[in-house]
Inverse folding.
């Protein structure tokens, strides 16, 4: 069952999100150069990290699927990628908002992490047309898994390549997201990251549970209909007697 | 395995020689794109970043044509079934297809790169050629590996002509970064020797990773 | 670039957090739709089964 341990997980998610919000707005100090704007960091960066890990995790689950041939691993991989794409959309939107607020443009090409993220996002968007244009369910799962593995491996290569390209044209003093954070900001960031991770796992389980439930229902319906047909076919044969 | 791969490769090259479907189309397409860039950019000669960008984007777009035709004969004549009925190692099939694509790309570049030198490039192409050849070969290996993988992924989909470019182009962005950044100083007016090591390492790393991935996952594609 | 004044910055920060909250709300709405479909299916199947039993 996919919903095992769902309740404590959901409670932990809600608590950690509340804690993260409280820390972001009441505990963490305003950033020395960016001021209040820097608060976007606590929602944008955890979402980006969780989405990227979701993509890679989807690849690992896909490896499991190809190894074992169990359809459930393909389902897990699909849901992880699906959720990461949804988070990815929010990452791009919040990234654009942050760029507008701190550099005055909605998009900046010299932020390697954001640019890499866009490329990865564009690649993963092709997962849907690829998956849904293969009809045979077994083959659909297999091809989707191959895609998930190749794309998962592509993520780190792409980040290296984009960073390499940017470091030539724009030597960066200190990256926006990395570097050393002061203690109170780091704590806030880590709690936000934890909250986002828990949220991801919760939604992943929720989606899997719902998908599994509809699949079971479909099987049940098929079985009931089959039985009704058998009965329908059997009654006229018995009636003359 | 190598003998099987060589046999498939020979069959593919024979068909290509007879039908002339991939390489001429890719070449013609590249030259057309040069003309488009000439008018689109409104420039008679290009150098540096612009030259490198136009050359590589054109070559990558031409690669899309080659990749979407890579399994064309098998598909049209039910050849995949015939091929896989015979006990052919999937790895041999991948090696053959990647080698065919590599050869198509080399043939394309033999024509398309000099034509670029004639039509659009400002600085002398010959001066840049030795280093450019290394970059082209490294890029072709990567393109062949990724291209064969994408072609096999897309072959069973209904929306094939949609999936190939959408899948291939984001996947080759790191390759484009490496190849275009490495070519840029070579195609600059008054080019001086520059350290290309980093980008060549990126290209070589990309080639290696995608060759390994493709070899690892190819077994799971193209059955039935 | 100098830090934006609070009232300017507030809009952007609010925007970013609203994006996040909207995401969750839309997700809840979609899940709600899925659950109601499952409920309908279960009801239908139950009716089918009851008709069968008679």
């Amino acid at each position: 069952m996919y919903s095992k341990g769902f309740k404590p997980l959901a409670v932990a998610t809600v608590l950690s999100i509340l804690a993260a919000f409280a820390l972001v707005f009441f505990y963490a100090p305003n950033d020395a150069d960016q001021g209040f704007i820097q608060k976007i960091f606590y929602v944008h960066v955890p979402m980006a990290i969780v989405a990227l890990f979701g993509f890679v995790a989807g690849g690992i689950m896909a490896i499991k699927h190809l190894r074992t041939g169990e359809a459930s691993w393909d389902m897990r991989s699909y849901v992880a990628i699906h959720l990461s794409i949804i988070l990815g959309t929010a990452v791009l939107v919040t990234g654009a908002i942050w760029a507008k607020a701190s550099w005055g443009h909605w998009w900046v090409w010299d932020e390697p992490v954001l640019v890499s993220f866009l490329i990865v996002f564009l690649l993963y968007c092709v997962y849907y047309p690829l998956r849904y244009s293969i009809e045979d369910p077994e083959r659909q799962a297999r091809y989707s898994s191959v895609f998930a593995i190749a794309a998962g491996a592509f993520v780190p290569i792409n980040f290296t390549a984009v960073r390499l390209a940017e470091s030539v044209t724009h030597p960066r003093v200190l990256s926006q997201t990395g570097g050393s954070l002061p203690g109170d900001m780091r704590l806030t960031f880590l709690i936000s990251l934890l909250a986002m991770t828990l949220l991801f796992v919760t939604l992943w389980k929720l989606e899997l549970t719902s998908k599994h439930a509809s699949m079971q229902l479909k099987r049940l319906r098929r079985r009931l209909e089959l039985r009704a047909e058998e009965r329908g076919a059997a009654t006229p044969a018995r009636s003359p007697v | 395995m190598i003998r099987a791969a060589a046999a498939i490769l020979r069959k593919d090259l024979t068909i290509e020689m007879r039908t002339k479907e991939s390489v001429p189309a890719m070449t013609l397409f590249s030259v057309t794109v040069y003309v488009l860039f000439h008018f689109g950019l409104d420039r008679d000669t290009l150098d540096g970043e612009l030259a490198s960008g136009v050359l590589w984007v054109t070559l990558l777009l031409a690669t899309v044509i080659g990749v979407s035709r890579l399994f064309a004969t098998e598909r049209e004549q039910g050849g995949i079934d015939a091929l896989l009925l015979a006990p052919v190692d999937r790895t041999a099939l991948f090696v053959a297809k990647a080698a065919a694509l590599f050869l198509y790309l080399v043939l394309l570049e033999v024509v398309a790169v000099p034509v670029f030198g004639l039509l659009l490039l400002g600085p002398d192409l010959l001066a840049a050629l030795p280093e450019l050849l290394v970059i082209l070969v490294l890029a072709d290996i990567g393109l062949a590996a990724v291209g064969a993988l994408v072609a096999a992924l897309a072959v069973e989909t209904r929306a094939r002509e949609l999936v190939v470019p959408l899948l291939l182009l984001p996947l080759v962005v790191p390759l484009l970064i490496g190849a275009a950044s490495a070519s840029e100083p070579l195609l600059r007016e008054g080019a001086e020797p520059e350290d290309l090591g980093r980008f060549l390492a990126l290209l070589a790393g990309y080639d290696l990773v995608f060759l390994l991935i493709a070899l690892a996952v190819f077994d799971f594609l193209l059955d039935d | 670039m100098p830090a934006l004044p609070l009232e300017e910055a507030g809009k952007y920060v609010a925007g970013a957090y609203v994006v996040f909250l909207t995401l969750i709300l839309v997700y809840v709405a979609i899940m709600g739709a899925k659950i109601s479909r499952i409920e309908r299916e279960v009801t239908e199947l139950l009716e089918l089964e009851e008709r069968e039993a008679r």
